[in-house]
Amino acid sequence: MKLKKSFAIIILIIAVLFLGSCFSIPSVGPSSSPFGSLRQSASDRASAEIASVTGLTGLSNQMMFNMMYSQVFFIGGFGANFYELEETQGAIWRVQSRDEDGRTSNVEAERALLKKLSNGDEWWYLAWRADGDVMEYEALMNSNLQARKIRYYNPDVKRVEETTFKETAASGSEDAAPREPAVSETDMKELSAYSKGKETIRVNSGTYTADRLEWSALDEEENTTYNYVWWVDPKAVGGLVKYEWTKSGSRESISGELYSVKKGYKTKFNSF
Questions:
Q1: What is the pLDDT of residue 262?
Q2: Residue 55's pLDDT is what?
Q3: Which of 9, 55, 114, 153 is the most buried (most CB within 10 A)?
Q4: Which residues 6+ apart lie within 8 Å of 110 measured at CB?
Q5: The pLDDT of residue 174
Q6: Any domain includes 165
Q7: According to the model, what pLDDT value does residue 16 have?
Q8: Within 10 A of 92 (CB to CB), how many other CB atoms are there?
Q9: Can you give the pTM of this predicted structure?
Q10: What is the pLDDT of residue 146?
Q11: Phi, psi for residue 53 in degrees, rounded to 5
């Protein structure tokens, strides 16, 4: 069995994503929804219906999905296709961050593979829950897990809406899909370079015999080392059981665990 994404490259991508995201800045905190300001800017329009018709609401949801994609599909530094899911199978992650003052905040991230299509595309469900806010999307992804379109419920106008990403849009623009991860044929045995042995790990979803993998990155400009520890068991849904992120000389930390798993997911937004 081979990984569909380069382990080393994905970790580097995640390091960048985390350092530039709410997860890596606990003072802002994952409990502060990264979607709040965008949603507020849309609701401040004269009319939610007009905003929806003119694309303003859809644009905000598009931007919100792009941020969610980096958080949910790369939870803990492992891509969603490291270990393939079965149709209708998914998992919920509980993630806690701690800031320099020792304050903690919590979020839930959920992803599930809803349906595989004959052309290689897949429908996925993604959700993010923080401070009572819930963001849910169904996304049509290609074989590289790059989004083609998304469907979501717009509470302002009380209907399901759909946004299609423009293939010709410049990377990073508001109407471009989130950047697809690098793809390679990395053999599973290459992970052994990061292995520190097996450990028995107990999390809410169960008990696993997991490989402990450790990886560090030095930020020479800040003279700071970022440390990652992953506990991985191929028998777990998605492979990743638990992870920890720490920063040298800092009290900041992030930890996450595979909280629950489920099979039998169905489309909520009549996507297929």
A1: 96
A2: 54
A3: 114
A4: 72, 90, 91, 92, 93, 125, 126, 127, 128, 129
A5: 66
A6: yes
A7: 36
A8: 20
A9: 0.76
A10: 85
A11: -65, -40
Mean pLDDT by 10 residues, the chain (272 residues): 36 37 29 35 45 54 81 76 88 92 91 96 94 92 88 92 83 69 49 89 97 87 87 93 92 94 97 96
- Give the whole-angstrom CA distance, residue 137 versus residue 140: 10
Q: How many distinct structural domains can be found in the chain?
A: 1
Task: Tokens for 87, please give them.
Answer: 């149709």
Secondary structure of the chain in the HEC alphabet? CEEEECHHHHHHHHHHHHHCCHHHCCCCCCCCCCCHHHHHHHHCCCCHHHHHHHCHHHHHHHHHHHHHHHHHCCHHHCCCCCCCCCCCEEEEEEEEEECCCCCEEEEEEEEEEEEECCCCCEEEEEEEEECCEEEEEEEEECCCCCEEEEEEEECCCCEEEEEECCCCCCCCCCCCCCCCCCEEEEEHHHHHHHEEEEEEEEECCEEEEEEEEEEEEEECCCCEEEEEEEEECCCCCCCEEEEEEEECCCCCEEEEEEEEEEECCCCCCCCC
Task: Examine residue 272 and state whether it is found in any structural domain, yes or no.
Answer: no
Residue 258 lies in a domain: yes
108, 70, 69, 67: which is closest to 204 by C-alpha? 108
Residue 271 lies in a domain: no
Write down how long the chain is: 272
Residue range(s) defining the domain that contains residue 47 = 2-263
In this prediction, residue 38 carries a pLDDT of 36
